[in-house]
Amino acid sequence: MALPPSLTPGDRLNIIIGVTGRATTGSRKNAGSASISDVAGSAGVSLMTVSRVINGHPRVSEETRRRVLAAIRKLNYRPIRAARDLSRGRSRSVTVMTSNTTLYGRAALLQGIEEAARYAGLHTDIGILESPRPSAVEAAIERSCDPASGGVIVIAFDLAGVRALRAIPAGIPVAAAVEINNVKDSRAYPTAALDDRAAAFAATQHLLDLGHRTVHHVSIPSSTNASARLQGWRAALREARARIPEVIAGGWTPQSGYEAGQRLAADRQVTAVLCGNDDLALGVIHALRQAGRAVPDSVSVVGFDDVPSAAFYAPPLTTVRLDFVGLGHDCFALLQHAADPDSIMPEFNAAAPKLVVRETTRPPRRP
Amino acid sequence: MALPPSLTPGDRLNIIIGVTGRATTGSRKNAGSASISDVAGSAGVSLMTVSRVINGHPRVSEETRRRVLAAIRKLNYRPIRAARDLSRGRSRSVTVMTSNTTLYGRAALLQGIEEAARYAGLHTDIGILESPRPSAVEAAIERSCDPASGGVIVIAFDLAGVRALRAIPAGIPVAAAVEINNVKDSRAYPTAALDDRAAAFAATQHLLDLGHRTVHHVSIPSSTNASARLQGWRAALREARARIPEVIAGGWTPQSGYEAGQRLAADRQVTAVLCGNDDLALGVIHALRQAGRAVPDSVSVVGFDDVPSAAFYAPPLTTVRLDFVGLGHDCFALLQHAADPDSIMPEFNAAAPKLVVRETTRPPRRP
DNA sequence: CTGAAAGCGCTTACAG
DNA sequence: CTGAAAGCGCTTACAG
């Protein structure tokens, strides 16, 4: 355990008392914690006054506030969440529904949402979507959607998320992070998105500018035909009057990129590949290298996301940086707006996608 | 947005009704949702009976149960979390306190905890530790530790976590994931750990067996002198009567590994390096390569964790696989035990660390 | 500036 | 198998 060797467990109590000044006394009904009436009694005021102090209500005399605060400290009182939430009629927490939080984009998004929520005084809890099967989605909602929830943010980058979004019960404030913001859908749900289309366009353009005749694409699962990344990629190709190759459907993992890469490696026409994310790119590059097609000498590869490791891959990966944390902030702002329609529509502050050129792209070899 | 193009937003209502059979009617006080008494009224039974049905209580006649279920469906009723939690005296959620969830180990651990909690019918919420400063830790606890919480699991791999663990108010069930389980500390808190010491020992041993005279170490921040990884590394060196080099303190990121790698590259004595995690290893390798010291030709490198990408790095990384998801399960089991001391102590099921030899290690060059 | 009352929506005993 | 009562610990009106 990472305890400094100089501290023995016996120090625990000392530390708690030392840091917070709390006594460990006061055992009562509810798990040994003091209630608001205990504090009121101890401070010689009404329960209402304690409530006012806790909530930072202005109309409390300094003297009273001090007494109450002292009692709170003495009894080591903290409000019970459930009681507050129940009496307020709304819980003070947002739940984020998402599949697999270990994937970079979702993890960063979750971080952004949590930051914003915390800043606004809300807690974050997570509702995992195990599978896109309707019954699984339904179960996840049954489990995670409190009717008195402070709001739900669904990460609808994949089918499970899209389905969950549609099944959120009415009456719960909701917002979603989506792959692409189109007018039709944003009328149905408040949605926030990064400009994946522009990002894919820029990445493809970069490869074309280098002199590649066309650019192949290994897609992430979310990429249906309406996918923003696919759209941007196709648009750049079309604009350059380049041939539009068939999309190779990948998964989320390097392994699935590896498998796509093996197919790509077999095709001598392939000189440039745009991948749906960096993990995919890593796998693609590995397969290419194994097949004797070095990157970038023989084939150029671009990723998507700019995960923290991408700059240290060998070779360092050219990719598009996506501001998932910023998107998380935006989603939360959107949710706040959804919860209070009288509020003004928030501005989106997530950074625009940015092409980061590193060392996996270069002009094609002259035949 | 990732909606199939064939579906327009107008379909939303249809889908909700279609999938769940719910009516969208019934607007009442609390955010438009029906309460348990509404259901009771509609089904012509008492509120108690509805409660029994919801909670799967056995002593309810089939006929009654059916009627209640029908009313629940008709009114689209779902229980409000806060009300349940309050009346039960304990919330049905665990909160995971951790710093930065985007780091692989923590993300995987969180996933494991969430899985186990979900399986047990509990929700998971997250309490982020922004900094190890005592005031920040205290604030995080103030924010996240509901006195009626179902329990808290703290990820105490770093200083912030260790401090948080010690400051969890008495009366809240708690368990911790720690770097190393020692007898003293596990008497103070229920803790679960992976055998990092054995893992580091095995990794170091592997390098020594290859013929390296000694092994350098780039550590993650958690690694104090009592760190399990340091212990295992030192023990292996000592056993082999090898020189024990000074530890190079790294951070969590590839960038910090890169900086450590630059220092290592300058030292011609260095032929083998054990890194505190895979990200660090990636950075170290990058720096080494830039300095003209190829891996593994000139220097061998071993990581820690076996992140999903490690097998696809160039070269594929030799590392130690750690079962963080399993550790998460174990932490949750431990918490359950802490919440109910009469229960039997759970067995730990996390897989033992496993050295995965790939291509960043080989015998040192003959001078 | 302070307080007494009512109520949030459930569940836990206690009866029958 | 079913129900009437009391209460969980807060906050929201409403008074003063």
TrEMBL record, chains A, B:
Keyword DNA-binding: yes
Pfam families linked: LacI, Peripla_BP_3
Record's keyword terms, sorted: DNA-binding, Transcription, Transcription regulation
Gene Ontology molecular functions: DNA-binding transcription factor activity; transcription cis-regulatory region binding
DNA damage found in the keyword field: no
Domain (HTH lacI-type) ranges: 34-88
Stored SMART domains: HTH_LACI
Record-given protein name: LacI family transcriptional regulator
Organism: Rugosimonospora africana
